[in-house]
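Re-run with default settings, no changes from the original entry. Doing this only to confirm the output is reproducible before filing.
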Amino acid sequence: MGNNVLIIGASGDIGLAISERLVNDGFNVLLHYNENREKIDAFRNKLNGEAVLAVMQADLSNNDEIKRFLAELVLPVDNIVFASGAGHYGLLQDTSEMVMDAMLTLNVKAPWMITKHLLPRMIQNRNGKIVFITSIWGSSGASYEVIYSSVKGAQNSFVKALAKEVAPSGITVNAVSPGYIETKMNSHLSMDEKVAILADIPVNRAGLPTEIAHSVSFLLDDRSSYIQGEIINITGGW
């Protein structure tokens, strides 16, 4: 099992939970963030500094920033966790082309480019694990979140297709698809909306970022190497 994990979107609530869990599991991490450097610094202060190999900033909704990020990505990467992705809430007819382009680049093109850049080493080593954090809306769709649902659906398709392509090379590709998780991404919801959502969830509560992190840890374990091309729903039965 390779020890170095690149975590894209490490400063988000789920990304931080994944980072902490993987460090506790004994992995070394390379942490990507866009804007929340203070959260990355606070995380590093909590942990053994030697486990954090690099901290890298890039706005992955921008093509030039993706190219710069790849040029600066010089340390060996054995595994990748894609935990980034901004939501977009609003009517499709009110969504600008600029927002559409940014969402496509961040959620679809950036993972394509990063994976393409890192695959040759994984194939040479005949080892590597790639995990996406997608969304329940990637399979079922959501009103007022058409663009977000579309790009998360694209991630699910990418996982399933790439898994078949690289399986003979010893590389696993899977996704964790969260339902309603207690994160800042849901801050746009009113209290009444949150209550209505929880009423529809059989376990009657929101999920926790640590529960998503546990699932990622499971997928990065070599004992899970026969799981391939799966979208694992963590939804509380929603």
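Residues 32 and 196 are 34 Å apart (CA to CA). The mean pLDDT is 93.
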